[in-house]
Automatic annotation (TrEMBL):
Protein name per Swiss-Prot or TrEMBL: HTH luxR-type domain-containing protein
A Gene Ontology biological process term: regulation of DNA-templated transcription
Annotated PROSITE patterns: HTH_LUXR_2
Domain HTH luxR-type: 1-39
Recorded GO MF terms: DNA binding
InterPro entries (alphabetical): Sig_transdc_resp-reg_C-effctor, Tscrpt_reg_LuxR_C, WH-like_DNA-bd_sf
Protein species of origin: Chryseobacterium antibioticum
Amino acid sequence: MAEYTFTSYRTVETRKSMIRKKLNLSSKEDLYIWMSNLNKK
């Protein structure tokens, strides 16, 4: 993802962490899997 957005790996990780915090997800839960499950509901 960082390569496609021309940002650093750490920036992507920080943004993912911020999204998890806003959605009240634990750091153990995979954000991509959680998002893909949204489409199935």
